[in-house]
Design a protein that fits this description.
By secondary structure, the chain is an alpha/beta fold. Helices cover 32% and strands 24% of the residues. The protein folds into two domains: 95 residues, Golgi alpha-mannosidase II (Immunoglobulin-like, Sandwich), CATH 2.60.40; 301 residues, Glycosidases (TIM Barrel, Alpha-Beta Barrel). The strands form two sheets. Strands 1, 2, 11, 12, 13, 14, 15, 16, 17 and 18 form a ten-stranded mixed beta sheet that branches. It is globular and about 65 Å long. The N terminus is likely disordered.
Length: 451
């Protein structure tokens, strides 16, 4: 039978456990209340909250495509270096499925990437390619030369092989088997590389709007089922215009509304990845521009000023949707082959300046809300705690709305501007009163850097 001291100890123990449980429950309840607490955002305003949970912005969203058809000269190299490009995808487009990459190609682009302080992504040949040739490129680049190229893709837009390569029965089952054989051969040489795939064309925001093979099978779903265990980044391509082969170039009004599609495309792809593989694999948009054609000279073609405004908003939406890699198409193009390069023969095209603006953006995403469908707002913190806020006015009108910065009654900021008349300049500093109107010029980027 227990003695008196044992009884006292037992009672004290029960009391201590009870108090611990009560404290834990109270703490959990307070945390749940704090989590559930919503900050009331006034309607019809621009709003930024620097105190929200911060998510790191992938530095690789500032990537670009490059290929053997393009030349960076002594005139354009300083521009390429100053753009802040973080990842070169090589060779962009279908060149790599029409030609064998040679070792001197890799040497040349590795030297360019080093000059630009950029990482490098290589796509090996899939169409008429072999596992042995792909493995040899990995061996040469990473073992023999020590380039330590981390990102590798296999082929380009296999979802078009049936129509563009003269193989009418080429489908996802054949692709999955070929992709896997090449991927395993490459990984055998260097297990540390990260594989990007499947590089599908014109991926959409639903099962119905995404590419199907000649047998009607969904390319992305079947790829993830077969190779979701090997792929490290899930990649897609998209060009909203022209719509249909030989279609006309977009107007400003037509292009303006397409940036919002990324708020449906990326969440759909993310949910499909999770549902099919059980994992949250990173997403890469490895080719993107406003037009897949060689369009040039139009009001909204890739060489136009408006293309730059559109791209700034698309890039902001990619950041908000946590895309890991974004490769714009492309670094350079002579006017004779199209206006899609951010660099022409010797000068930058307007979209080049979007990268100049985003170089000043922070690297930790914070909450930003726009009350106007024509204006995108993207906000971030720099490492030193500086708040940066990007406004993208897609409309042809001045937009004025109250602007609230949470928990501040007034603040001072440097104002950077890019518009049709200003090529990325700090136009001054201003003291803002939270809740007062901010004026955004037509078709412009405005970056506030808080002091």
């Amino acid at each position: 039978m227990p003695n008196k001291q044992s009884k006292v100890f037992f009672c004290l123990l029960v009391l201590a456990v009870g108090l611990s449980l009560l404290t834990a429950c109270t703490f959990q309840q307070k945390n749940e209340q704090a989590t559930q607490k919503q900050i009331d955002i006034p309607e019809g305003v621009f709003y930024v909250n620097p105190a929200t949970t911060r998510e790191n912005i992938s530095p690789l969203v500032y990537g670009i495509n490059h290929g053997p058809w393009a030349v960076i000269t002594e005139q354009t190299l300083p521009l390429a270096q100053a753009a802040g490009i973080t990842l070169l995808r090589f060779p962009g487009g279908n060149w790599g499925d029409e030609n064998d990459l040679q070792t001197y190609h890799i040497d040349q682009v590795a030297a360019l990437a080093e000059q630009m302080n950029s990482q490098l992504s290589i796509n090996v040949r899939l169409f008429n390619g072999t596992p042995e040739k792909a493995a040899e490129l990995v061996r040469y680049a990473n073992i023999e030369k020590g380039y330590a190229i981390k990102y590798w893709g296999i082929g380009n837009e296999p979802s078009l092989f049936a129509t563009a390569r003269g193989v009418p029965d080429y489908g996802v089952d054949q692709f999955n088997a070929e992709w896997r054989d090449i991927a395993q051969a490459m990984k055998t040489i260097d297990p540390e590389i990260l594989l990007i795939g499947p590089e599908l064309h014109q991926f959409g925001s639903s099962l119905e709007s995404s590419p199907k093979d000649p047998a009607g099978k969904d390319w992305m779903t079947e790829f993830l089922k077969a190779n979701g265990d090997l792929v490290d980044l899930v990649s897609i391509h998209r060009y909203p215009f022209p719509q249909g082969r030989g279609g006309k170039a977009a107007t400003i009004e037509e292009l303006a509304v397409t940036s919002t599609e990324w708020d449906q495309i990326i969440p759909y792809l993310r949910s499909l990845i999770q549902e099919t593989t059980g994992r949250d694999l990173p997403i890469a948009v490895t080719e993107i521009n406003s037009h897949w054609s060689n369009a040039i000279g139009g009001e909204a073609t890739p060489d136009s000023f408006y293309n730059a405004i559109w791209w700034a908003d698309v890039l902001g939406r990619m950041i908000v949707n946590r895309v890991e890699v974004v490769n714009y198409f492309s670094l350079h193009s002579n006017p004779s082959i199209g206006g899609y390069g951010i660099l022409s023969r010797s000068t930058p095209r307007p979209t080049y300046y979007v990268y100049e603006m985003y170089k000043k953006f922070g690297n930790q995403l914070i909450t930003a809300v726009s009350a106007d469908s024509h204006v995108g707002i993207y906000a971030a913190l720099r490492d030193d705690g500086t708040v940066t806020i990007m406004f993208v006015n897609l409309s042809d009108q001045v937009i004025r709305k109250p602007f609230f910065l949470q928990d501040l009654t007034q603040f001072e900021a440097d104002i950077w501007r890019f518009d049709e008349f200003t090529q990325v300049e700090m136009i001054g500093s201003e003291t803002f009163v939270s809740g007062e109107e901010i004026n955004l010029p037509p078709q412009s980027l405005t970056l506030l850097v808080l002091k």
